Amino acid sequence: MNGITILLLLSLGMLGVVAQALKKMNELNRRSNGNFSFKNYIRIEVFSLALSVTIVFASVLFIYLVPEMAKAGKWLAFGQFAIGWFGQSGLEFVMGQAKKKIGLSSGATDDELKNLST
Q1: Residue 105, helix vs strand vs coil
Q2: Which are the contacts of 74, defined by CB distance < 8 A and separation ≥ 6?
Q3: Which pLDDT does position 72 carry in this prediction?
Q4: Under 8 Å between Cβ of 13 and 83
Q5: Residue 81 CA from chain centroid, whole number
Q6: End-to-end Cα distance, the chain
Q7: pLDDT tens digits, residue range 47-75?
């Protein structure tokens, strides 16, 4: 598949997940005035991150199961990063919409920020 390996596709997808998580951690660190706790973030986001990783692995499987995907060539590499990035941010968006529908705020509450602080 034009020199693109499974390992490269998985790595790029995981890089997308990590980049989105770093973006979110930066935002939370700023909102909590630098009192961000990585340990608490992982504890709260573990299922969201696991779902994003699952999406990345599933997308690589689909690439190899659908022969027509090979026609995308090097765009597959870009696509994998985007899948990782949007897998994480899309989940945050959907969960934010669900919170709005059930009457919760879409942003982090003071209690959530307190939990992410040391």
Answers
A1: coil
A2: 2, 4
A3: 83
A4: yes
A5: 10
A6: 47
A7: 888 998 999 999 888 888 888 887 887 88
Mean of pLDDT values over 63-91 = 81
Residues 6+ apart with CB under 8 A from 98: none
CA distance linking residue 76 with residue 60, whole number of Å: 9
A 10 A CB-CB count for 52 gives 27
CA distance 6 to 43: 29
pLDDT for residue 106 is more than 50: no
3-state secondary structure of 107: coil
Instruction: Tell which residue, 67, 64, 65, 51, has the closest CA to residue 17.
Output: 51
Among 42, 53, 45, 63, residue whose Cα is nearest residue 16: 53
Domain range summary for the chain, segments of one domain joined by +: 6-116
Note if the pTM is more than 0.85.
Answer: no
9, 63 contact by CB (below 8 A):
yes
- Confidence grade of residue 101 (pLDDT, cut at 50, 70, 90): low
Q: Which residue has the tokens 């982090």?
A: 108
